[in-house]
Amino acid sequence: MEILQAVMKIMLYLTILWFFWLMYNQTDGKCIAKIVALLIVFMGVFWLYNRFNLFLDGLNRSQISTKLKNKYKKNALTFMITVFIIITGLAAVIAQRSYQQNYEKNIQNRELAIDTALIQEKLRQGHSVLVEIRADWCMTCQVNGALVFTKNKLDDWKNRYNLDFIRVDWTNYNKETLNFMEKHGRKGLPFYILYTPFVREGIVLSEILADSEVEDILQNRF
C-alpha cells in the first residue's frame, strides 16, 4: 500500500505538471506564474483554515460552548468556500485573457484544418499523404509522435515512398475537423488516415500505431 500510495502521488504530480504544460502552450509564462501565485495563496489560506479548526477542536467546553464552536467552524468553512470561488474566478479570467492575447502567436505554426484540396493535389502529383489529427491534451498522440512519427522515420518514408506528412492540430475544438473524422467513422483522437495515388479515399489507421502498419500499406498498395 505504501508503494501504491507513492506511485499515485507521482502520477498526481505528473498530471499537475502536464496540466500546466498544456496551459503554457495555450497562454504564456506570465499567466502560469500568476496562476501558481494564486494557488500558493489558496494553499496558505487552506492551511490557516485547518489550523483554526484544530485550534477549536482543542478547546474544551469550559472555554467555548459547542454551539459557538460549530458557529465558528461554519463561518470558517463559508470563508474558505468564498476564497476558493474568488481565486478560481480570478484564475479563469487570467487564463482567458492570456489565451486571447496569445492565440495567434500560439497557433501560427499549427495546421488547424483539413485541406482536402491540398491532399488531392499531392495525390495527382503521385505522392502519398499521411494525415495525423492530434491535440496537446492527447497522451496517445504524444506517445505515437515520440515512437512512430520521428523526424528520421518521416524522412525515410518520404524518400522511399514519396510520402508527405500533414499534422492537423485539434487542441482547440474545430467543427470542420470533427466532421472529417466522423465521415470516416471516428470521433476521437488520435486519428490517422493514409492516402495513396491508388487508394484515394484513404485508409484509417489504428489509434495505437506501429510504423510497420504504415509501411505494410505503402509497400502493398503504393
Short description:
This protein has 222 residues and is an alpha+beta fold. The chain has helices at residues 2-26, 29-57, 66-107, 116-124, 139-147, 151-161, 175-183, 211-221, and strands spanning 128-134, 163-169, 191-196, 199-204.
Uncertain runs with pLDDT below 50, 5 residues or more? none
In helices, the fraction of residues equals 55-70%
What are the secondary-structure elements, in order, as H or E? HHHHEHHEHEEH
Task: Please tell me how large the radius of gyration is.
Answer: 26 Å
* Average pLDDT level: 89
Please, how many helices? 8
Derived structural class? alpha+beta
Overall morphology: elongated
Tell me what the structure shows:
This protein folds into 2 domains: 2-107, no CATH class; 116-221, 3-Layer(aba) Sandwich (Glutaredoxin), CATH 3.40.30.10. It is 65% helix and 12% strand. The chain has helices at 2-26, 29-57, 66-107, 116-124, 139-147, 151-161, 175-183, 211-221; strands at 128-134, 163-169, 191-196, 199-204. A 4-stranded mixed beta sheet has the order 2-1-3-4, sandwiched between helices. The longest helix is centred in the middle third of the chain and has 42 residues, at 66-107. It is elongated, with a radius of gyration of 26 Å.
Features:
222 residues, Glutaredoxin
SSE arrangement:
Blueprint: H1 2-26, H2 29-57, H3 66-107, H4 116-124, E1 128-134, H5 139-147, H6 151-161, E2 163-169, H7 175-183, E3 191-196, E4 199-204, H8 211-221
Helix pairs in contact: 2-3
